[in-house]
Amino acid sequence: MFKETITDIFFDLDHTLWDFEKNSALTFQKILKNTNIDVHLDDFLKVYVPINFDYWKLYREEKISKKELRYQRLRKTFDTMGKTVSDSSINTLSHKYIEQLSVHTHLFPHTIEVLEYLSPKYRLHIITNGFQEVQEKKLKNSRIHKYFQNIIDSETAGVKKPHPYIFELALEKANVKQKNALMVGDSLEADIKGAQAIGINTVHFNSHNEQLHDLCKIINNLIEIKSIL
Question: What does the record give under GO molecular function (predicted)?
Fold first, then answer.
């Protein structure tokens, strides 16, 4: 496929290597209890997860700020559940969520095995839309920071995937051409289409069980990367 030409691999972090849903659920389990907000975790997550997804899309499209994202996703969740929660409690919950999220370190199956396999052969990097102060902690606490030469986040870049500039910046920092680069990520819009738009090779990690497509190679488990590269 492109095995002979690839020198650099760019990974997304959340939903690709770092198991965001599992770690996020563990964080909410703790902070909802500690802030005495009377909701059942499963009921909360059932409402919160799709709302969070929608608000991240708005944030990615520059339609809301980071502050609005952090507040509104919680406000809409509690409003949808019919729960009366004060702004003060929401702001406290939002702060504690960001503060404690990176404490949890669950990775997708075979993450370490795949990084160990790839790191002697390729230069590895991260391109993430996550918040700078949180993403660094996730990588370090999960003990995978050492595998990556460059970590490009949207706050530092000033734009978010799928904006071409964040990919161009990543290529520049890695000193690599598009034809020699591979992007591995879970988001068709942000990772796959964004990278393809400037000529970067792509592999879609289908961690959300989305419909099949022919945009690029699809994998359902990270271990499949070993049969590609």
Answer: 5'-nucleotidase activity
